[in-house]
Amino acid sequence: NKREIAERFGVSQTPVREALILLEEEGLVDIFPQSRTEVSHIDVQHAREAHFLRLSVEIEVARVLSQSIDDAGLAALNAWIERQETELHVDNQTAFKLGDNSFHNEMFRLAGVEGLTQIIDRRRGHYDRIRGLYLLEEERRHIVIREHRAIFAALQSGEPATAEGAIRAHLGKSLAIIDQIRNRYPDYFA
Questions:
Q1: Are residues 175 and 47 in contact, defined by beta-carbon separation less than 8 angstroms?
Q2: d(CA 58, CA 61)
Q3: CA dihedral 141, 142, 147, 148 (to 10 degrees)
Q4: Averaged pLDDT in 10-residue chunks for the chain of 190 residues
Q5: Distance CA 46, CA 49 (A)
Q6: Cα-Cα-Cα-Cα dihedral sign, residues 9, 13, 19, 23
Q7: Are 55 and 168 in contact (CB under 8 A)?
Q8: pTM greater than 0.70
Q9: How far apart are CA 80 and CA 94, in angstroms?
Q10: What is the C-alpha R_g of the chain?
Q11: At how many degrees (to 10) do helices 138-157 and 71-89 cross?
Q12: Most buried one in 32, 38, 64, 71, CB count within 10 A?
């Protein structure tokens, strides 16, 4: 309900309407004019396409960084890993996911292609919803940290093939178990 959302956030209905239109364009809500607006079901094909885009770009980012990252860049990445470890220990799942995104965004920034994150972000809504379900289990959050450490080590090694392998291993997890996630949360999927 646009009116209720506007009241809750203390804004007029115009920005709420505009936000809902943007969410509809990304396929995250379904708007039924003069009737209702609903959160859409997760579109696995849309998620796969966003994953393909992200994987393709991030492999190249890792290859570039493996040959160019300096100590300051490594320290910045390590700081995000440590932040995620802190959020894991206090069980702040929202902050953990933000730290995960920030680790990857830092890689893009260090590679000099930070603007590409905006392109990917416009397409990743369904993919992020699957990632969110994947990260509900604490053990999976531990896996993310181990994989971020592996990416860090690969970048530090200066070996492009090792960096590519670390990215492939890390980014493939949530979609690799999509059937398991869909079986656990069948009402969330189209």
A1: yes
A2: 5
A3: 70
A4: 91 94 92 90 94 96 98 98 97 95 97 96 92 92 97 97 97 86 94
A5: 5
A6: positive
A7: yes
A8: yes
A9: 14
A10: 18
A11: 170
A12: 64
Cβ-Cβ contacts under 8 Å for 111 (sequence gap 6 or more): 61, 64, 65, 68
Torsion of CA 167, 97, 95, 125, to 10 degrees: 140
pLDDT at 174: 73
Whether residue 61 contacts residue 113, with contact meaning beta carbons closer than 8 Å, is answered with: yes
HEC-encoded secondary structure of the chain: CHHHHHHHHCCCHHHHHHHHHHHHHCCCEEEECCCEEEECCECHHHHHHHHHHHHHHHHHHHHHHHHHCCHHHHHHHHHHHHHHHHHHHCCCHHHHHHHHHHHHHHHHHHCCCCCHHHHHHCCCHHHHHHHHHHCCCHHHHHHHHHHHHHHHHHHHHCCHHHHHHHHHHHHCHHHHCHHHHHHHCHHHEC
Angle between helices 71-89 and 93-110 (to 10 degrees): 170
Length of the chain: 190
173 CB neighbour count, 10 Å cutoff = 15
- d(CA 156, CA 72) in angstroms, rounded, equals 12
Report d(CA 110, CA 169) in Å as an integer: 21
- Asked whether 99 and 108 are in contact (CB, 8 A), the reply is no
